[in-house]
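#onboarding

Welcome to the new folks! Below is a worked example of what a typical request in this channel looks like: someone posts a single protein sequence, and someone else replies with the predicted structure as tokens. Don't worry about understanding the tokens yet, we'll cover that in week two.

Example request:
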Amino acid sequence: MDIIWEIIIGFLVGLVARALMPGSQSLGLIMTTLLGVVGSLVATHLGVAVGIYEAGSSARFIGSIVGAMIVLFVYGLIAKKK
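Example response:
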């Protein structure tokens, strides 16, 4: 059941990150969900490295959105080069 909640929250985080990021992102449903899930993982690991979170804790919603925006920015840079 936890995996289903992670996917749902990842989708919501991906939608919010895409809405806040300037420009047009043509990502589908699956890519938006993956963006949110990966963004949450990035936020968790960056938070632990900086000292915001303790090891083993998960990123909160705002941190997940910031992480998803970072992933979306990097994805945009990579997609431009192709």
